[in-house]
Amino acid sequence: MQKLIRTISCGLLTLSLLTPGVASAAGGLLPYNDISKHWARNAIIQGVQLGLFEAGPNVPKFYPNRDMTRAEFLVMIDRLYYGGQYQIYPLTFLSEHSEWARAEGFQEPYLPYKDVDRLTWMYKPTLRISTILDRLYGPNAIQYIFPGEMMKPNQPITKEEAAKILQMFTMSPDSKNAWEEVRSWGWLEGEKTERVKRGDAAVAADRMVNYFLQDGIMPLLDYDGKKFPMVPDLEEVLPLFATYADPKTTEEQIYVDAAAAIRSRNDSEETFEQLRKLADASFPNQVGVHYLLSWNPETPIETNLEEAFLSIDAYFEDKIILPETLGLLSANVYDIALQLGNKDQSQYKKVLDRLSAYEQKVKQDSKEWESLAMYLGALEIRSGQVDLALARYKRFADRSPEALLNTSYYYLQEGRMQEAEEVLAAMKPKASDSRMNQLHKMLRQEFASLKDQPAIISDLGYSLRQLDNADTYQVKGEAVLSGLTFSYTQDVNKEKQISRISGFYQSPQKLISDKLLSYTDGKTNTQYSYDTDRQTWDKSRTDKVDFLHEWVGAVKVADRAKELHARYYKQSYGKYDVITEWIPGSMLVEKSKKVTLGQGKVKEVPLFMNKYYIDRASDQIVKYTWRYEEIYEGDGYVAYSGTDNYDFTSNVAFSIPDDVRKGVAP
């Protein structure tokens, strides 16, 4: 299929959330008049603010003690997910196109129920969640929650049914333990046979939002190669560094106005001229003045770096210990270093040497030291000094999520699993530290998954060999390649070493679709493709590798894990085992240097992910999903995603017609 798509496309390669309202009620301004004394009051208010529940003059009551229906719960989860909670993207691969209730290509997904009408309020949210479950766990996964032809959307949902839906936000490897898994996260309480009250649902959503704000479902997974080394997220990157009350002095007003202009991106050359005058006039807030000057887009990046260091100098001259301020100033230096390092990696070491000089000015192992050490460690990693960074991070890994994650990740990258486990085992998070407790639990789960890699690789390798050894099979699939959309059926006859693809494809430059038809002769490595414009057959070779994903596809799974550092994760749901594969883009770029590709040299690989759905009874692959992004030198960009469904029972009987072989255009 990939060769045919390349042939066709080579010339083309160059539910909104409801706005909540409020109603006046006893006890203050509340969105409903029946929650003022309810135990779930705060969670309900939070849910309204997040758009999970409708509120306003026409919706005076929430009914917190009423049973929540199946449809209502699915709508809430739909709003929760599509409101920005995309932590499970590495497991779904769903594009924006797919998220809004469409498949990768032409066909719209559908619900397997007769009692959820397309014209009702519940249809699209239910369909979207069904689509996510399909991508996560396999065909018709929603049937394992609500089996049969009728979903009974108005029936109260049980806590066990709710847990099976919420399980998609966990790392749980087996659907049989959904209730235990969800209860262990504290999202639902009670007994699994109990009905979910609307107040219960609001609390579950509130607790899950706090979970989403942490480190994702697989904290050590760096599927796009941009997560590590990890540094803290900064809520405010342009503070004033001082408090200014009215009336302000002339200089204070100039400074505050300059900060506001930079914050709103309305700064100009005059903005930075005014700041420069404040620096020369010994304005008291030199930390802030030099920090803002480092944001000047018109000066060389090297000049910005000098200003960033001057802001740190000013911090230490003030002799006031403010760990958060030092952390922000260090983060600024690190950010500028990243910009310099993109062009010249030797810059990381130079910046590290300068930033390290400040370490003697802070008390070792203090909060102030940790703020500085976080970025020193990141620069050590960027400059290739991983052991130094590990020794540094390990000193405060028990109280810093970022230090713990970096310690775990780089120990594992170096094959030092035991040392990573020892760091985790030595931790005793405080009961009040919810993030560290949650991270501790997630890392334990991820370590268990990493230990299971050999078994997962063996299982996937066996199923792929089954596919290679099958005499005949049929594939029905859809794909999108750099704007081209494909829908196809592929018949494969391994005994005769021939295959046939039929279907159609849609170009963004055309209003109508084109016919898709090709034959491949494996004995001669020849493909015959029908050109609908010229109404002739073209012949091409199939033994030439043009794209990176073609080359990777020919690499055995065991070798992908060993040579390309592929990471695997296995989940069991219903009758399927689902294995997800991520390959780091940096490794693909490095290894591709030794490969000749028709498209040219690989410059960057932002994404490279595969997902295999295996029937547990037969060990056969029944579905395969992929998502790749490849950037080549010369700015050639390939975005390729799709899904294939396999049928090993179809009667595949065909041959390559003589008129195809003879009709090849000269």
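That was protein one. Protein two is written in the same sequence-then-structure order:
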Amino acid sequence: MSRSNEGAIQGSKNPSSTTERGTRGRSRAEGSTGPSGSDFLQLDLGQAPPGGRTDWLAGRLRAAIADGTLPVGSRLPASRVLAAELRVSRGLVTEAYQRLAETGQVRGRGRGGTVVVAAPPPAAGPTPAPHRGGLVDALRAMPCRIDLSPGVPDLTAFPRTAWLQAERRVLAGLTPADFGYGNPQGAPALRAAVAGWLARNRGIRADPDEVVVVAGVAQALGLLAQVLREEGVHRVAVEDPGSLGARQQLEYGRLETVPVRVDEAGLDVAGLRASGARAVLLTPAHQFPTGVVLDGGRRRDLLGWAAAGGLVIEDDYDAEHRYDRAPVPALRALLPEAVCYAGSVSKLLAPALRLGWLLVPPRLRDAVTAAKRYADLGNPVLAQLVLARLMDSGELERHLRHVRRRHRRRRDAMLRALAEHLPEARVHGAAAGLHLMVTFDGAGFEDTALASAALALGVKAHPLSWHRVRPGPPGLILGYAAGSAGEIEEGVATLGAALRGGLADGPGGGPGGLPETGRKVFPDRRQPPAGSRVVRG
């Protein structure tokens, strides 16, 4: 709200405000060239058509909400104040506000005034394709009813009480010196706690001095890209299909990524050898997005390749979330001198914490620590110390057991919904993780079209092709951890409706096309082959 409006609201308590309004009125009557009406949104009643002032005012307010001039949470002027400023009846302003309330954009809150509570959805029509590096960010920003995007845990389960208690205890024990610059490698307490956590949960024996605290796996990959480039490594092999975000992180670090096929046994190590790459990024414990585990034979081959001079970057992004299979040893535990190990609490607590860890071979440790120092001087110390206390107290293990049960129930809900609403889909990776991959083998449509049609109906999902380099069958990646069982059921039912509707005149494909309109991806109304199959990776 502008300062002039604040003055108007205070007018009943400040006699001078009446004089000011009178002065402004006389200046307008004398032909001032300034805008007539209120300074609020620079409203000029002279622009309103005769007999259509209410429509005009409601339209101006609605446009201001839509373009963000009046963001969600902002308060509109009191109706009597705006009416006085515009020199119209209070009933006209009240009617305009009521029209916005009827469409759910504003809400009256008694003495709290009238507040903007929702922006209208963007106008329908083609959306410009985002830059390749912003596909996931663009999708994340789009409004929806149900979000089945992968990679997000149950954020409602965040242990707020335990976090607050730990934070109070940490603050009570800090000295003034503890609020200064910390060690860029990470707080010693957290590095020790991470070493203990990895020993208990991943079978990794590491000294605290080997741990570098980072702002999530994304920063770990960025630091490694910088260090590897300085070491003369310019090409890194990546899984195909594999994480689009991880691949982009390496490419942003000016490394060339070389796709290597993933099958039912994990990364094709023979293909890795043939690629000529000196380093490889992979997710061996729960491959993203297929959910397969790197099997014993492939592990031996991979470690043999690494022992001969290769470097493995192990992204252990959600290995804690297991339901129907035994834990898989981390590669770092088997060959620490050739494996960089990255992990975080993004899938266990919340991505917003931006807390993770990186273990590298001794020859790279000083370079990685220096890169971290010059990147940001280290992560915020208070959050590090709180996480260390949660790890040391056993609270984080208790939280893990709690969310495993919740995630399992939601996984089961999604499997039931897929069997009912998408029986033609083949389901992959149900034994662990926070997402399922479904494929439509032999189908004649593009998965970007299905994802776009679903988004038009209010449901988000990742098309599998986003995470592929080489061609493959269409599919979707569906996250189940962040939504309730009811939302999962409704979301999958919506996907089934989009598919069985033939996507006629619905959004089309293209790697950046969410959404594109006017393309029939099922011109002959063919249905994918029937028969649901679940692959438990």
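The longest helix spans residues 395-421. Keep this in mind for the problem set.
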